[in-house]
Design a protein that fits this description.
Family: Belongs to the Toll-like receptor family.
CATH superfamily of the domain at 792-975: Toll/interleukin-1 receptor homology (TIR) domain
Radius of gyration: 53 Å
Distance between the termini: 106 Å
Helix content: 10-25%
Membrane topology: Single-pass type I membrane protein
CATH architecture of the domain at 792-975: 3-Layer(aba) Sandwich
Keywords: Glycoprotein, Immunity, Inflammatory response, Innate immunity, Leucine-rich repeat, Membrane, Receptor, Repeat, Signal, Transmembrane, Transmembrane helix
CATH topology of the domain at 792-975: Rossmann fold
Strand content: 5-15%
Structural class: alpha/beta
Number of strands: 44
Domain TIR: 793-940
Region (Disordered): 956-976
CATH class of the domain at 792-975: Alpha Beta
Largest sheet: 17 strands, parallel
Length: 976
């Protein structure tokens, strides 16, 4: 036999530990409540991969149910990581293939159910590891035969069920089970076996129960001793099986033999077989009327006493008082169900059989039960249980059971009884259980039950009773259970329930009660434990009413579900006042618009509360509504429209074990509210539109890392915004940023900016302003056009000056540069700037459309913002393009102190030549001015770099940089 290495088990253990660390939920399974991680059911799932069900089950799993799925295949090692598994149920799937090692490592498995699948073949080694298996069911599959040795290792197998297959070869079956020394039950019903031929095989001595019903047996074909250890043998519905088939077969140990719907003739069989005649079930053997008398005579020749005589489904139409006199004494049950009896005739057919203690006459055609207070009536003092269920009884007459005074259980349910005589039950002083449910009764009278003072259970469910009259139950002081469910009761008369001083369970569901009258419960207010008021017409429109349950101090279960037609509507604040012992409260399907914060205050012992589907629209649960429910262990609030789950509302539920919140409307669930429930073990939050945002980060962390709380199908929950993403793994990294650190740095930056900005404003004001305008123009369409115009050099020089110096520009500069044969083209703002255009754009255009920029510097020039901008633009072009495009002309002497604030101008003066206008104090101003204009004209014509047509404006050839020597005059000079 092949085995798996130990490292496989170790690996699976590690996987189990990792899974528990990652969260207590399962992809396709739910742990059963209070199972301590041992029992799981995986039902109605659509996954087709076996590992989708088993891979995340814990090592501790003992019981697993995988049913009603789309599974078709059980691959190898499907349960290898579940070595503690003892019960595995995989019924009602589509399984057709099971690999050899599918059940590998399941050495502890005791129960395996593979019924209702499509299995047609089994590998002979598929069960080899199941040494402790005691129960195996392969019901309703497509097995035709069993491979040799398939059960060779199942030495502890007790029950093997293979009914509803298509097997034809009993020899193979016998060979497969012959060595199973502990096999006790073998079920082969609903197959196609034709005989019990078994070669030289024998059934194990331990086998005592053999079901062979509904096959195609026409002979047993087995050895004399083959069935000698069988106690229960079912051969029913083998329609071709004759009596002669039992000749020579040892059936002495059989104590229950079923031959229903076979070809066996009773008389012939009793003469041939050695089976005890008292152990034969004669149901369905075609024994009618006269044949019954013959049967009785045969039985009496063999037996003096018979315990049970089963005659169901024989088509018997009538029994006379002489029919059963020829039978042995019947001391137990006489079964006459599923016949055609039309009259019971006060059970006179039991004449001479007064020791019968149970009579079943169900599923017959009885239409009435007549009065039996007659002189010739058979007195049946030993009859204790009588069942007339599933007949057509319309009336029950006076003294109908006079002849059976000691009946303890009477079943008249599921008939058409419309009239029950008020004295019909007279004399039944020992009656304990009375079933009158599912009839047509409309009235009960005050003396209907007067003799039934020992009655404990009275079932009147699903009749047409509308009113309970005074004194109806005055004699039923021992009644503990009264079921009026499904009637048409609108009210009880004032003393309608008087006398029920021991009543414990009262079922009034499905009636037409519109109010709860507390005065009705006064006689059993100290004993009532269960009150069912589901589906009545109880409703309230105001909050202030007195509690109808004030004195029901022992009430433990109260059901108020689904009040018709619109629900309770209002739940009065004091409605549950006095119910200090209540443990279960059902309020499902009520349209309660508001729950007062103190409505449940008196329910201090409550353990179970269901409010699912009880509210209308969006529900705002008020803080403190559950504050006194500290013993509550299970709370169902499904589909209530709850939009606020908070600690203030649910925080006091310190014993809560199960919380079903599914199908509500909250988009977030605070983790601290769940953490305030220390005993929580089961959480259902399916079908809630939870957002996959930072708001639910803590909830995600709670569901994934809380090893004590099972979150139902957590890994299948999707994000509200996009169903492609799962809630359990949506990205939360952005939610864990160190906000303190970021706030510190951002605050530090802000403080730094507030500190440095004033200094930068003072020192770099024009630089910043210039940069702003340059970049604004750079990205505009105008900037592109300016770059193109710059290549063409429309002007020889742009003159930057202050308006206070305009006279000098007009009278001196223009005539000497544009006239006197110089023919330079100058750009002057008052003449050449485009009207209506932004002044900054005009300045930029002038600077980049001119070969040179001449700044006429004076004190007023230095004080002008626009002049400063112009020199900034020109200097930017100078340093950016490395061209000698800036010329400085000083109209008046300026000291170092006056120039100290203009760093860029001083930087230019240190690197480039500049001109100073010779003033009137010169010794020879005319000669000095001529020299000034000559030098300025030369500076305009020349440049510091050679510029080609491709690279810029067409300029004179490159000249060496030179410094102009200082002249003999004092004031007019060129200075580096």
């Amino acid at each position: 036999m092949a085995t798996r290495p130990h490292h496989l088990l170790s690996a699976t253990v590690v996987l189990g530990v990792v899974r528990l660390m990652c969260g207590y939920s399962f992809h396709n399974c739910i742990e059963d409540l209070y199972s301590n991680r041992q029992s799981f059911h995986c039902i109605h799932r659509k996954e087709t991969d076996m590992f989708a069900y088993t891979r995340d089950l814990p090592l501790s799993a003992v019981n697993v149910t995988i049913s009603n799925t789309y599974l078709r295949h059980i691959p190898k090692d499907s349960f290898a990581h579940l070595p503690n598994l003892q019960n595995l149920k995989m019924d009602h799937n589509f399984l057709s293939r099971i690999d050899r090692f599918a059940f590998q490592n399941l050495h502890q498995l005791k129960f395996l159910n593979l019924s209702f699948n499509n299995i047609s073949e089994l590998n002979c080694f598929v069960f080899e590891d199941l040494h402790n298996l005691t129960f195996l069911s392969l019901t309703k599959n497509k097995l035709k035969q069993l491979p040799e040795g398939i059960f060779s290792t199942l030495l502890n197998l007790d029950t093997l069920i293979m009914r509803q297959n298509v097997m034809t070869n009993f020899t193979g079956i016998a060979k497969s089970v012959s060595h199973l020394t502990n096999l006790r039950i073998l079920d082969l019903c609903f197959n196609h076996l034709t005989s019990l031929s078994h070669s030289n095989e024998s059934l194990p001595k331990s086998l005592t129960v053999l079901y062979l019903c509904r096959n195609d047996l026409y002979t047993l074909g087995c050895k004399h001793s083959f069935l000698r250890y069988i106690n229960l043998l079912d051969l029913s519905y083998n329609s071709k099986l004759p009596a002669m088939a039992f000749a020579g077969v040892d059936l002495r140990h059989v104590n229950y033999l079923r031959l229903r719907s076979t070809s066996v003739k009773v008389a012939e069989f009793l003469n041939i077989s050695n089976v005890n005649a008292g152990h034969i079930d004669f149901s369905g053997m075609g024994i009618k009327n006269n044949m019954l008398i013959e049967l009785c005579r045969l039985l009496k020749r063999k037996l003096k006493v018979i315990k049970n005589l089963r005659l169901s489904n024989n088509g018997i139409e009538m029994l006379t008082n002489k029919t059963l006199r020829h039978c042995p004494k019947i001391t137990g049950t006489l079964e006459l169900s599923r016949n055609n009896l039309q009259h019971s005739i006060c059970l006179n057919f039991l004449s001479g059989q007064n020791q019968v203690n149970r009579l079943d006459a169900e599923h017959n055609h009885l239409t009435s039960i007549p009065s039996c207070k007659q002189k010739n009536a058979v007195y049946l003092k030993n009859l204790e249980e009588l069942s007339y269920r599933y007949n057509r009884i319309l009336t029950v007459s006076r003294d109908a059971f006079y002849h059976t005074p000691n009946i303890k259980t009477l079943k008249l349910n599921i008939n058409n009884i419309a009239f029950l005589h008020r004295k019909a039950l007279k004399g039944l002083k020992q009656l304990v259980t009375l079933r009158l449910d599912n009839n047509l009764l409309t009235d009960l009278f005050n003396d209907t039950f007067e003799d039934n003072f020992n009655l404990q259970v009275l079932n009147l469910r699903k009749n047409r009773i509308s009113v309970i009259f005074n004194g109806t139950f005055r004699s039923l002081g021992n009644l503990t259970t009264l079921d009026f469910g499904g009637n048409k009761i609108t009210h009880f008369q004032p003393s309608g329930l008087d006398g029920l001083k021991s009543l414990s369970k009262l079922y009034l569901d499905g009636n037409n009660l519109k109010q709860i009258d507390s005065s009705l419960y006064r006689c059993f207010q100290d004993t009532l434990t269960t009150l069912d008021l589901q589906s009545n017409q109880i409703h309230f429109h105001k909050e202030k009413i007195s509690s109808p349950f004030l004195n029901l101090t022992k009430l433990r279960d109260l059901k108020l579900d689904g009040q018709r037609p619109h629900g309770l509507i209002v739940l009065p604040r004091t409605f549950f006042r006095g119910l200090h012992s209540l443990q279960s409260l059902y309020l499902t399907n009520n349209n309660i618009g508001y729950l007062a914060p103190d409505v449940f205050d008196d329910l201090t012992s409550l353990r179970f509360l269901t409010l699912d589907n009880c509210c209308v629209g969006v529900t705002q649960l008020k803080p403190g509504v559950f504050k006194n429910l500290q013993n509550l262990t299970k709370l169902i609030v499904e589909n209530m429209g709850i939009q606020n789950f908070s600690k203030k509302v649910f925080g006091n539920l310190t014993q809560l074990h199960t919380l079903q919140l599914n199908r509500n409307v909250m988009q977030s669930i605070p983790a601290d509210a769940l953490e305030s429930l220390p005993k929580l073990r089961y959480l259902d939050i399916r079908d809630i539109p939870l957002s996959c945002t930072c708001e639910n980060t803590l909830l995600q962390n709670y569901t994934l890392h809380n090893p004590n709380v099972q979150v139902v199908y957590l890994y299948n929950m999707t994000c509200q915004s996009d169903s492609k993403f799962k809630f359990y793994n949506f990205d939360t990294n952005v939610c864990y940023l160190d906000l303190g650190q970021y706030l510190f740095f951002s605050t530090a930056v802000v403080i730094f900016l507030f500190t440095v900005t004033p200094l930068l404003y003072v020192k770099l004001y024009w630089k910043m302003k210039y940069s702003y305008y340059v970049f604004r123009s750079w990205f505009s369409e105008q900037w592109s056009r300016l770059r193109e115009k710059e290549e063409k050099c429309k002007y020889d020089a742009f003159i930057s000056y202050n308006s206070f110096d305009e006279q000098w520009v007009m009278e001196q500069l223009m005539p000497n540069l544009e006239g006197n044969g110089s023919n330079f083209k100058l750009c002057l703002h008052h003449r050449d700037f485009e009207l209506g255009r932004d002044i900054v754009d005009n300045i930029v255009t002038a600077v980049y459309s001119s070969r040179k920029t001449i700044c006429v510097v004076s004190r007023k020039f230095l004080q002008s913002e626009w002049c400063s901008l112009e020199i900034q633009l020109a200097s930017y072009r100078l340093f950016d393009e490395h061209r000698d495009v800036l010329l400085l002309v000083f109209l008046e002497p300026l000291s170092e102190r006056q120039l100290s604030s203009y760093h860029r101008m001083r930087k230019i003066m240190l690197k480039k030549t500049y001109l100073q206008w010779p003033g009137s104090d010169c010794t020879d101003p005319i000669q000095a001015q001529d020299l000034f204009w000559n030098q300025l004209r030369r500076a305009i014509r020349t440049g510091s770099t050679l510029v080609t047509e491709e690279n810029g404006c067409v300029a004179p050839e490159k000249e060496k940089s030179e410094h102009v020597e200082k002249h003999t005059t004092d004031k007019y000079y060129l200075q580096p």
